[in-house]
From TrEMBL:
Taxonomic source organism: Carpediemonas membranifera
Keyword Transmembrane helix attributed: no
Catalytic activity: L-threonyl-[protein] + ATP = O-phospho-L-threonyl-[protein] + ADP + H(+); L-seryl-[protein] + ATP = O-phospho-L-seryl-[protein] + ADP + H(+)
Protein name (database record): cyclin-dependent kinase
Cited PANTHER family: CELL DIVISION PROTEIN KINASE, CYCLIN-DEPENDENT KINASE 2
GO biological process annotation, one example: G1/S transition of mitotic cell cycle
One Gene Ontology cellular component: nucleus
Positions of the Protein kinase domain: 1-256
Domain of life: Eukaryota
GO molecular function: ATP binding; cyclin binding; cyclin-dependent protein serine/threonine kinase activity
Coiled coil: none
Length: 259
């Protein structure tokens, strides 16, 4: 049993879409147990088929079966496997840029990162990227505030949002627009200032007139993921991208000590 992804070009005369070529090249580059495996590519009559290992379901559907949140053992394991897959991407100098539960497949119980249609290679210094990436609820605040320069930390922010959602089966920041998403984040973490996030006031879409929210924090998650889980979550969701924990460092966090 395999999964087929058919790619149709809106302009067949122009050849294979760049998003498909990018996804193919990325998946040929990364071979990791927590990244979905590309088994083959078939081009027939102008239609391109990507052949993947088959996932049983995605993380979003799995969470729908647990309305009170996943068991702690699953939260830990899935977060660890997600971080491992993300770390493999970053180690090969790739930003995923679209991490969300719908793009995380469960294959025989193992979580695998999938859907690399928005992936980008990065270099030092970081290039300018479009900020219209990452599904709204998992989008890092620097992207929401218009930053054109961003790093692997946009992926680790998404991991933090997904970790919190696994604990409650509800999205942590369910905004319905860019500004609504920002205010959802501000209500949990507090409205950022130069003291909490140096340079934030220089970002293109930052407004001095933003409401001043006090942080509500993550105490509601303490009973489920414990103090170590909340500590990891705070490090993944640090405002300042330079202070946000990397995937490789997060894998060493005490939250995973008993695994």
């Amino acid at each position: 049993m395999i999964a087929l992804k058919q790619t149709n070009s809106p302009h067949p005369e122009e050849g294979i879409p760049t998003t498909a070529l990018r996804e193919i090249s990325v998946l040929k580059t990364i071979q990791h147990e927590n990244v979905v495996a590309l088994l083959d590519v078939v081009n027939e009559e102008g239609k391109l088929f990507l052949i993947f290992e088959l996932g049983d379901l995605d993380l979003k559907k799995h969470m729908e079966g647990h309305p009170e949140g996943l068991p702690l053992s699953e939260i830990k394991r899935f977060t660890y496997e997600l971080l491992s897959g993300v770390d493999a991407c970053h180690a090969t100098r790739l930003l995923h840029r679209d991490l969300k539960p719908q793009n995380l497949l469960l294959c025989n119980g193992t979580l695998k990162v999938g859907d690399f249609g928005l992936v980008r290679a990065f270099s030092v210094p970081m290039r300018v990227y479009t900020h219209e990436v990452v599904t709204l609820w998992y989008r890092a605040p620097e992207i929401l505030l218009g930053s054109k320069h961003y790093t692997t930390s946009v992926d680790t922010w998404s991991v933090g949002a997904i970790l919190a959602e696994m604990a409650t089966s509800k999205p942590l920041f369910p905004g319905d627009s860019q500004i609504g998403e920002l205010f959802q984040i501000f209500q949990v973490l507090g409205t950022p200032t130069e003291a909490t996030w140096p340079g934030v006031s220089k970002l293109p879409d930052f407004k001095q007139t933003f409401p001043s929210f006090q942080p509500s924090g993550f105490d509601h998650l303490l009973p489920k993921i414990g103090a170590d889980g909340v500590d990891l979550l705070k490090k993944l969701l640090a405002y300042d991208p330079a202070e946000r924990i990397s995937a490789s460092r997060a894998l060493q966090h005490p939250f995973f000590a008993d695994m």
